[in-house]
């Protein structure tokens, strides 16, 4: 049996850690970054070239000791590779997957699809109460009335 | 739906958005048979999804395009110069809904602003006075709030921040419209339920689009055949130089020919000039109707820019009608500000998926996540102002990139004019002042998105040497070839363009009907 060319557990962990350094939300648990890493790996399956780009980049992270760096060193390391093909292969699909994750929406306070719930007309579209109620008509109309 | 033979010479309309959909209704209402070609599928309101990326994949024009020039979109989104729709109803199915009119002087940009280095300013061959009755008709068709007895929409949370900031910095001309979404039932369609999804298509049908109004009514006349998945690739002409047919591809790439008495091109300011350039012949070697060399030139996209501001308390900007908030105080031409023309401020909201991709393309790290962490407490606005026409801001056929049928894609070249840069900088400062007055603890200057307002590129001009079309949107060079979309705009004004596109189309349809009845076409 040939040696596996699939991304292994260690590599997945490395990628997940990279995503946390890229998008460091204190409120996000590890599983959110793991799920995002899976989406990045999934996107790389589109072609052998993309798969090679991703796997090579993850190996390079290991060689650089990325997982042993403190947050500041890790950030500086990512700055040094910003703009290369691996960086783009992670941030492109990673950004979309991370912020399309419904658990992330919950944490950020976004409610998602609403039409099937009757919209927000009776669910707080105008519930902001820390500012006065503003005029909604046009200025000239107010002057006339 | 009426079946029209491919050999029957009819009015052939290319594109079913604001211009094309309106043409189909106005012409068939006047008894004139039309074939309406739409490159995209026939999605309905029930098909739409309340999810930003899924809806983008469903509705957006994703066929290849190329970019060049110094604008930032060419760097961040090189294949996506514009965010517009490929489906029946065109971009009216995802527009937000703001409907300001052009001001009198915006039709006379050259006379008002004077000559500006690098800008190809020109006066329109039409005046506001001539447009006013058509603006009235268009506002009634669209059901614009604050107009003709239509009530205003209520204040949503994003508007409350926006309007309070406006009041505190001394602005007066703010309101929740005019906005083409029903505050109460109108024209057979229900009131808004404030579901917060506009750019994803309106499942509620309370927002005007040609999908919900003009196209079904055109079909009801029994004189219109709508052909979806029909992508026009060439306009042919006879030996006298009159347009005589449109060639189009179906979804499988089979070529069809529809005979034409009149052709109305309404494929948006990128695809419309592309179609004329693809229609070059020995009689029209530089592209159809291009003796001036102006086809594709003077492409405009409005100034644009956004500001997102963070507050200590919740806003939930995504709840409610996205753009039901307009400030017009900075709209007038006032050169003492350091630029000509003006701009509107309009409420805008994105969900986290789109905000992450567009708030600062390419950004990551703590500064970025600070903005995302504040999502629930964030308010947003869009800045939309007049950008300067420039000959070099231009749609051309790409030398290297082809679509899946082997045809060259459109290349969009764009550079900001110095006036655009000055106006944008000024507008960002004013937007910051507004939000700070409302209590903002942080603001971010978001650069322009892929273009949603695509204008010019086949402009109307008094003299044939200055543009492609005459005052009726008819080609100077081809007497039965019309353009019926935002490409016709001589200059862009500051107003969101849809209302003006519809008003121009109503006017043009009236002219075509008269000319056909008189045997002039």
Highlighted features:
heterodimer, A: 145 residues, mainly alpha, 7 helices, B: 521 residues, alpha/beta, 7-stranded mixed beta sheet, 6-stranded antiparallel beta sheet, 12 helices, 16 strands
Molecular structure report:
The complex is a heterodimer of chains A (145) and B (521). Chain A is mainly α and 145 residues long. Chain A is 59% helix and 0% strand. Chain A has helices at 9-22, 30-44, 48-63, 71-81, 85-100, 102-108, 139-144. In chain A, helix 2 (30-44) packs across helix 5 (85-100). The longest helix of chain A is centred in the middle third of the chain and has 16 residues, at 48-63. Chain A is elongated, with a radius of gyration of 22 Å. Chain B has helices at 18-29, 52-59, 73-76, 109-113, 128-142, 157-168, 214-220, 268-278, 352-358, 366-373, 418-437, 498-517; strands spanning 10-14, 34-37, 66-68, 174-175, 224-227, 231-237, 243-249, 255-265, 306-310, 326-327, 343-347, 378-385, 394-402, 408-413, 442-446, 481-483. Chain B has twelve helices and 16 strands. In chain B, helix 1 (18-29) packs parallel to helix 7 (214-220) and helix 5 (128-142) crosses helix 12 (498-517). The model of chain B has no long low-confidence stretch (mean pLDDT 98). With 521 residues, chain B is α/β, with parallel strands linked by helices.
């Amino acid at each position: 049996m040939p040696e596996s060319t699939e991304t292994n557990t260690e590599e997945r962990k490395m990628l997940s850690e990279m995503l946390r350094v890229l998008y460091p939300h204190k409120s996000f648990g590890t599983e959110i970054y793991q799920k995002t890493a899976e989406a990045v790996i999934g996107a790389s399956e589109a072609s052998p070239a993309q798969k090679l780009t991703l796997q090579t980049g993850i190996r390079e992270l290991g060689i650089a000791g990325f997982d042993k760096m403190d947050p500041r060193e890790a950030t500086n390391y990512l700055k040094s590779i910003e703009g290369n093909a691996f960086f783009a292969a992670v941030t492109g699909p990673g950004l979309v997957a991370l912020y399309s994750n419904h658990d992330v929406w919950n944490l950020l306070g976004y409610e998602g699809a609403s039409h099937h719930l009757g919209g927000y007309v009776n669910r707080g579209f105008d519930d902001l109460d820390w500012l006065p109620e503003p005029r909604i008509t046009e200025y000239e109309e107010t002057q006339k009335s | 739906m009426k079946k029209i033979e491919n050999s029957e010479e009819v009015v052939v309309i290319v594109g079913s958005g604001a211009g094309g959909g309106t043409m189909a209704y106005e012409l068939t209402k006047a008894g004139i048979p039309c074939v309406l070609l739409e490159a995209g599928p026939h999605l309905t309101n029930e098909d739409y999804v309340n999810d930003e990326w899924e809806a983008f994949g469903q509705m957006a024009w994703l066929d290849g395009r190329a970019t060049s020039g110094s604008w930032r979109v060419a760097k961040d989104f090189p294949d996506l110069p514009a965010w517009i729709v490929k489906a029946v109803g065109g971009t009216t199915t995802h527009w937000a809904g703001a409907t300001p009119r052009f001001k009198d002087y915006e039709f006379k940009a050259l006379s008002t602003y004077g000559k500006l280095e690098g800008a190809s300013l020109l006066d329109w061959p039409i005046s506001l006075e001539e447009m006013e009755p058509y603006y009235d008709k268009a506002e009634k068709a669209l059901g614009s709030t604050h107009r003709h007895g239509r009530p205003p929409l209520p204040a949503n949370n994003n508007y409350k921040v926006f309007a309070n900031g406006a009041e505190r910095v001394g602005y007066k001309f703010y309101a929740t419209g005019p906005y083409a979404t029903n505050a109460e039932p109108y024209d057979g369609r229900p009131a808004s339920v404030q579901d917060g999804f506009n750019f994803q298509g309106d499942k509620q049908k309370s927002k005007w689009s040609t999908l919900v109004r003009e196209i079904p009514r055109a079909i009801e006349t029994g004189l219109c055949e709508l052909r979806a998945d029909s992508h026009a690739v060439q306009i042919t002409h006879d030996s006298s130089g009159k347009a005589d047919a449109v060639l189009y591809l179906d979804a499988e790439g089979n070529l069809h020919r529809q005979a034409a008495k009149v052709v109305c091109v309404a494929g948006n300011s990128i695809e419309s000039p592309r179609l004329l350039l693809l229609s070059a012949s020995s009689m029209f070697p530089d592209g159809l109707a291009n003796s001036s060399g102006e086809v594709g030139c003077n492409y405009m996209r409005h100034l644009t820019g956004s500001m997102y501001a963070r507050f200590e308390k919740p806003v939930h900007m995504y709840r409610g009608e996205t753009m039901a908030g307009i400030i017009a105080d900075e709209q007038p031409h006032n050169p003492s500000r350091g630029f000509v023309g003006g701009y509107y401020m309009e409420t805008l909201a994105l969900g986290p998926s789109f905000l992450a991709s567009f708030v600062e393309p390419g950004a990551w790290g703590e500064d970025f996540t600070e903005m995302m962490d504040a999502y629930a407490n964030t308010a947003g606005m869009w800045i939309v102002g007049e950008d300067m026409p420039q000959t070099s801001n231009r749609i051309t056929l790409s030398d290297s990139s082809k679509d899946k049928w082997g045809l060259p894609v459109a290349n969009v070249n764009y550079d900001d004019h110095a006036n655009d840069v000055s106006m944008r900088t000024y507008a960002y400062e004013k937007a910051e002042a507004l939000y700070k007055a409302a209590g903002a603890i942080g603001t971010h200057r978001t650069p322009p998105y892929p273009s949603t307002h695509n204008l010019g590129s086949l402009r109307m001009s008094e003299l044939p040497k200055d543009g492609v079309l005459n005052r009726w949107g008819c080609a100077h060079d081809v007497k039965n070839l019309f353009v019926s979309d935002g490409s016709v705009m001589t200059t862009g004004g500051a107003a969101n363009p849809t209302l003006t596109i519809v008003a121009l189309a109503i006017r043009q349809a009236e002219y075509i009907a008269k000319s056909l009845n008189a045997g002039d076409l």
